[in-house]
Amino acid sequence: MTDLNQLERDLLSQVEAAGDEAALESVRVSALGKKGSVSELLKTLGAMTPEERKERGPLINGLRDKVQGALAAKKETLAEAALGARLAAERIDVTLPVQEAPEARGRIHPISQVIEELTAIFADMGFSVAEGPDIETDYLNFTALNFPVGHPAREMHDTFFLAPDEKGERKVLRTHTSPVQIRTMTSQKPPIRVIIPGRTYRHDSDQTHTPMFHQVEGLVIDKQANIAHMKWILEEFCKAFFEVDQVKMRFRPSFFPFTEPSAEVDIQCSRKGGEIRFGEGTDWLEILGCGMVHPNVLRNCGLDPDEYQGFAWGMGIDRIAMLKYGMPDLRPFFEADVRWLNHYGFRPLDIPSLVSGLTS
Amino acid sequence: MKFTLSWLKDHLETNASLDEIVETLTRIGLEVEGVEDKAKTLGAYINAYVISAEQHPNADRLRVCMVDTGTGSPIQVVCGAPNARTGMKSVFAPPGTYVPGKNITLGVGTIRGVESAGMLCSAAELELSEDHDGIIELPEDAPIGVAYAAYAKLDDPVIEINLTPNRPDCTSIFGIARDLAAAGLGTLKGGDVPAIQGKGACPVSVTLDLSGDDAKLCPTFALRLVRGVKNGPSPEWMQRRLLSIGLRPINALVDITNYITFDRGRPLHVFDAKKVKGNLTVRRARDGEEVLALDGRTYKLDAGTVVIADENGVESIAGIMGGEHSGSDEGTTDVLIESALWDPLNIAQTGRKHGIITDARYRFERGIDPAFTVPGLDLATKMVIDLCGGEPTEAVVAGKVPDTTRVIDFPYSEVPRLSGLDVKPAESEEILKKLGFKVEGSGERVNVVPPSWRPDIEGKADLVEEVIRIAGVDRIEPKPLPRLEATVAKPILTLIQKRTRVARRSLAMRGLVEAVTWSFISKDEAELFGGGDARLALANPIAAELSDMRPSLLPGLLKAAQRNADRGIGDVALFEVGQTFASDEPEGQSIKAAAVRRGTARAEGVGRHWNGGAESVDAFDVKADVFALLTALGIPAGGLQIVAGGPAWFHPGRSGTLQFGPKNIVGAFGEVHPKILKALDLKGPLVAFELNLDALPPPKAKPTKMKPKLSLPDFQPLTRDFAFVVGRDVAAGDIVKAAQGAERALIVGVDVFDIYEGTGIDPDKKSVAIAVTLQPTEKTLTDVEIEAVTAKIVAEVSKKTGAVLRG
After folding, report:
1. Residue A153's pLDDT is what?
2. Whose C-alpha in B91, B150, B461, B569 is 20 to 30 A from the C-alpha of B117?
């Protein structure tokens, strides 16, 4: 008995003392290997009398089970410790910076963004988007829009001309998006509801003018549309675009050759510390021109002004972008300075919608 | 158009305040640009007496003045003006006053140890003139303690309106008063012109030497001689008004014409009768004729210009500017006064051609009141007699005052129809009448005759504008525009509009930054990128480098990349989606998407990085961009071919052309050609692509939105690797294509996973390793079957490319 107890104590302490899997294995072999101390004891069972075996059997088997259990437990402990040691050695410096993702670097130009904002708003009001060429005929840019040849209003446009063709006719870079009104009215039947965003050109360059800029035009033609509707459209647009609950607008009678009556529209705002806020304050800021489509323009498109009527308006996309997002100058819009684009541009997935809001 | 409040009140009997007048002007379409009210801005400045001016104890150039401002307690002021002296009267500004000429607000200060409580002012400090040599000197009888602005009669506010080109009637103060009266702000007055009883006929006759169509160039010309005038400075009140609106007084005769130009919108001209030789003829100028005009410049004329000539030659450029030779001066005793009517179009063209901007041109090109031709002459005659004396002759009138009477059939219902405002006929009628329109008939539909001074009124819509601008546009309540159809909103974007948007977002997702560059580039750049067509050159470019419509987005982007590099940001990735021009026809314009990458600006990362990187951009970076874009656009890669080489602006060996067949080239990508770098002064590495979005095939129309049925094979795919040795100029794409074609039913993927050139391979060969994925659909493949497919692949690749399996 004493032997077994002693052997058990010895073996268990050897198991406990094993520092790694190899040491543990040699303990296992010394105890449970072919010639191991416990295996040797087990072999003695065969030569025992049944009585002896009955007494010694459970003791020897018990010893074997205990040693096996201790070995397994120790193995687990050692494995755990080894994993711990490995993981401890496998440390990385998680503060190292990763490469900036491409979608974090990419930008959408404010003009593209604002065109998408406009489109979202007007689509909701049933408008589609019409477009036309930048190089226009004199007829579509001026004459069809009721700018008589030689009229001072033509002079106000500072037109870019292309070289005259064989017939002596010279095309122009459109000075406004309005020729697309004519293209639309001559190619589709009323009711018409379109917005017309696009590039426009005037021979003008200073702090607040660039020879190329962007306009958006709106056109509604049916048999009822009047100034009251136009006021509603423009008010709703301004509220939605500037994302404010209220705007106060002032319609000042004005003159455009292609509308009659015509008006310029101011929007009330406050200017504090270089920040413009709409829906408050006492300043007026001119934002767009509008009017009822001139009967001559309707006639030029084959529409009877006694049957059809409607209104049109136009505004500068660059300008409303500046008003909404606070760019102080127009010129950098076209300079492709990545510092400016990174700052004022929009992220690739900043997609304007009325569902989630024009801006996030 | 500028005028003063007192001048306006010559024609408008009103109790309205300046603010009310300004507000009303803007409300009725005469937008006020600015009001200069010196009574307000100079309100704090007062007349003062300098009791004493003594040498400053600590400064040679300064004096210490005791100033009496009428309060009885003198104020001490330190003054540096050389003319500050005891006993003078000047203008004093107390502490707290804003000094416009210096843009400061005064405080109480100590100047070299002496306290100074205010300032004695120069005319420049008050922005009254350029004179800053000394403080203002007032006459001895100037009252002390009163506001200087009122004393100096500077308290007449100047109003400037931004006049729209359709309103020639409001180039006159009388016309503005008429609009204000119609808007309910008072009563119009001072419009009557006394008829002049002249003595004897005008000795100078006028011939209109304009026949046929040319008659319209000068329908009428009225002239009168006034003998025995005494010319000299015009009276102070007239000079003050002219100065207020920015005109320089010349002499009484000239000032009268300028005065009437603004007062009544009627330009006139005066000739010194003694300098006119013979009779006057109105005719087209002869080519090469010259005239020295009143602005001191000599103009070379041609037949496009209408002139007034005598036996000496050209005396005046009709309707624009008189000649120096026959101009009036202090010695003028006999004056010929001209009141004529000129063709707006011709005046505009002539003024533009010679670059002359005058108040006369401004009015004639807008169209002045023909009926006021003779009254205008009479008014001028009256003022000449009143101010300069003299005796008038009868007027001589050549030609005929045109009758511009027209009748507009006007149903009052037009007002609510177009405006949405229910203006009653009685109100419309009243407004029109107050504006000088004749309203004939009664009831719902009337005949309206516009007044002679409103050439802009053509039809019903113009009358509606007149009514609502006076009634008040602000009375129109916004009204919702009903939806056309009671349905959920339908999609509105066209295919190209959708593709343009997707292109922008997907390129931005690749780390590219969107630029918007000019639609015009230099001629050289246009030619380098396949453009330069004379039809796309601007006749009047704003600058030489912005002269031609761009054939490509790349020149603008490449130069933009370089500008950023010049600012120290060399790793730039820019894109643009925009229009390019192949001809001046609408079909010649197409939307392209293009991008440039410079330096190390790769999609994976930019610049040096601890984990590798800092690799220069190469053609594959932009190839990846263009493929990402095509995928985002939903373009099936099936029909797309990539052909080695690209347009001339790309490196011929490091570029590719994207095409759907040889006749449908849609774009290209690659390294920018070194010659382009040199020509545009660019530094690489620069790679770029350009894709014509308009040339891409539209999606196939499908009857439903159903996606094709998904069939998932029951058997695992397996992959076999092959290494082929081929000639170095064999395209990997051909190897891939050959492998794909070996057994179409089984092969679902071919990937190139290694390219090797070097040791162990012939110098003129390369090794291309591909992985072929087989997807059995019927049953698991046996080894024999796999062997057979493998052999087919090797055979097919060998046959098509001359490859041998690498041993």
Report:
1. 64
2. B150
What distance in Å separates residue A225's CA from the closest CA in chain B?
Answer: 8
Q: What ipTM is given for this predicted complex?
A: 0.90
- On chain A, the residues whose CB falls within 8 A of the CB of B418 are 226-227, 261, 292, 309
Interface list for B 218-277 with A (CB within 8 A): none
Tell me what pLDDT residue B152 has: 84
Q: Is B482 within a domain?
A: no
Q: Which helix (H) or strand (E) element contains residue B795?
A: helix B783-801
Q: What is the CATH number of the domain that holds B417?
A: 3.30.56.10
CB contact under 8 A, A338 and B494: no
B739 and B778 co-located in one domain? yes
* Residue B646 located in a structural domain: yes
Whether chain A has a CB inside 8 Å of the CB on B600: the answer is: no
Tens digits of residue pLDDT in A181-234: 999 999 999 999 999 999 999 998 887 889 999 999 999 999 999 999 999 999
Domain-located, residue B481: no
Closest Cα in chain B, distance from residue A275 (Å): 23
DSSP A36-103: -HHHHHHHHGGGS-HHHHHHHHHHHHHHHHHHHHHHHHHHHHHHHHHHHHHHHHT---TTSPPPPPHH
pLDDT tens profile A73-132: 999 999 999 899 999 999 999 999 999 999 999 999 999 999 999 999 999 999 999 999
**Which CATH number do you get for residue B756?**
3.30.70.380
Under 8 Å between Cβ of B600 and B615 = yes
- For position A2, what pLDDT does the model report? 53
* Cβ-based contacts of B551 with chain A (< 8 Å): none
Between chains, do B517 and A334 touch, taking CB under 8 Å as contact?
yes
Q: What is the pLDDT of residue A156?
A: 66
Q: Are residues B620 and B680 in the same domain?
A: yes
Q: Which of B368, B399, B430 is the last residue of a domain?
A: B399
Say whether residue B504 is in contact with chain A using an 8 A CB cutoff: yes
pLDDT at A51 over 60: yes
Are B521 and B554 part of one and the same domain? yes
For chain B, residues with pLDDT lower than 50 are: none
Q: Are A4 and A10 in contact (CB under 8 A)?
A: no
Which A residues 113-132 touch B at CB under 8 Å? 116, 119, 123-129, 131-132
CB A337 within 8 A of CB B563: yes
Looking at the fold, whether B31 and B47 belong to one and the same domain comes out as no
Give the span between the Cα atoms of B422 and B439, in whole angstroms.
19
Do B429 and B449 belong together in one domain?
yes
Count of domains for chain B: 6
The tokens for B279 are 């009779």
Task: Answer whether B728's CB lies under 8 Å from B757's CB.
Answer: yes
Based on the domain organization, do B224 and B295 belong to the same domain? yes
CB contact under 8 A, B518 and A212: yes
Residue A281, pLDDT score: 85
> Of B126, B127, B136, B45, nearest to B88 (Cα)?
B136
Residue B385 token pair: 């007699």
- A160, A164, A220 member nearest B481 (Cβ): A220
Indicate yes or no: CB of A229 within 8 angstroms of CB of B479: yes
* Contacts with A351 from chain B: Cβ below 8 Å: 505
The range of the structural domain enclosing residue B688 comes to 495-695
pLDDT (0 to 100) of residue A177: 96
* Chain A positions in Cβ-Cβ contact with residue B563 (cut-off 8 Å): 335-337
d(CA B122, CA A95): 68
Both B30 and B163 in a single domain? yes
H or E element in which residue B659 lies: strand B650-659
Q: How confident is the model over A286-302, as a mean pLDDT?
A: 96
Q: Which of B399, B416, B449 is the last residue of a domain?
A: B399
pLDDT band at A1 (very low <50, low <70, confident <90, very high): very low
Verify that B360 and B451 share a domain, yes or no: no
pTM: 0.88
For residue B655, tell me if it sits in a domain.
yes
